[in-house]
Amino acid sequence: MTSGSRGIYILGNDRVFDDALALVHSLRRHSPSWPILLVPYNDEYRRLASRLKSDFGIDVFADPDLFAALEAYSLSITGRVCPAYRKFAFWFGPFDQFVYFDTDVVVFQDQIDVFSLLDDHDIVFCGDGRVMGIREVFTERVLDRQLFSSSEIDDLFNTGFFASRKDSLSRDQLFALLAEAAEVRDIFVPYLQDQPVLNYVALKAFRRRANLRLLSPAIPGDAWAGLSTLRVDGDRVVDSEAMPIRNLHWAGFHRIPERPYVRVWLSYRYPGRWRAPQRLAIRVGWLVQKVARRTLCTHLPDWYKPAFQVKRVRRIWAQRIAEPLRRIWTAKDRAA
């Protein structure tokens, strides 16, 4: 990359093959000017990397030594290896300014406004602190210790989208903050991977933060697909007042046929090519899973009665029943 380069990182492997293709199609449609690099989530990424290279000319950015160091820190902080800590590698990649998206996102806007903000800010994001509070990042202990002010809590964000500059964080500074995070690991929500610690580093390291939700109503922000107030407008989704949004994030919706606004996702995964049989299979597969989850386990023995057991068994059998239908609409994976 040349000096002053700008680009987009994605983090993925073969398991998110379909999501990654949908994301990249949306980026090529709405942000065609920016190069994209794939950072491997783990060693099982070669099918995805091959497809992205052949179809879009996307290369891989990998730094095994850095990845190993980041995962060692994740072990000391969370007690398990978290490959999502590889997001910290973006600050040491080839792009001087970068934007990152999770693979379960589709993008509806060009990123020129985000890159422009990076000329005067260290990090850009859509902060959710005023809405979600601390529950998706920190435990109550962070308030007891008064580690951050209320205005800093407002800047907590979902790490499925953010942007930053390469020169805003040094390797020594990052490793020092990760070591510090290990000392206060009880303040982090334990079931999340990178989001608590990435927010911790952002609040500690970056003073010039740009929260898109607080800057201007004219700047589109992101949206979670679980919101029922959104509306479909062609190949995009808009908010309840028909205002554009930057991107739609399906965080928590792992089964594609059950996703809200699934037709929008499909229009990017199979642009111009998804056919009636695929649409029918998706609808039938979703219906089968829905009916199975409602009707299975009606006559379970008493020891299965706890809600979590019923939910688990329903999910397992619903997936088994719907699996042949799922294969119908994913059969053309390698060709579509």
Can you summarize this structure?
By secondary structure, this protein is of the alpha/beta class. The protein has helices at 17-30, 46-56, 64-78, 112-117, 129-132, 141-144, 150-153, 171-183, 195-205, 212-215, 262-269, 276-295, 307-330; strands at residues 6-12, 36-40, 59-60, 97-101, 105-107, 123-127, 157-165, 209-211, 222-224, 231-233, 236-238, 247-249. It folds into two domains: 6-215, Spore Coat Polysaccharide Biosynthesis Protein SpsA, Chain A (Alpha-Beta Complex); 275-336.
CATH superfamily of the largest domain: Spore Coat Polysaccharide Biosynthesis Protein SpsA, Chain A
> Which CATH architecture of the largest domain?
Alpha-Beta Complex
According to CATH, what is the class of the largest domain?
Alpha Beta
Extract low-pLDDT stretches: 299-310
Bin the helical content: 40-55%
Principal-axis shape: globular
What are the secondary-structure elements, in order, as H or E? EHEHEHEEHEHHHEHHEHEEEEHHH
Overall average pLDDT = 84
- Structural class of the helix and strand makeup? alpha/beta
Beta-strand fraction estimate: 15-25%
Distance between the termini: 31 Å
Looking at the structure, the CATH topology of the largest domain is: Spore Coat Polysaccharide Biosynthesis Protein SpsA, Chain A
Q: How is the main sheet built?
A: 7 strands, mixed
Number of DSSP E strands: 12
Give the spatial strand order of the biggest sheet. 3-2-1-4-7-6-8
Overall number of structural domains = 2
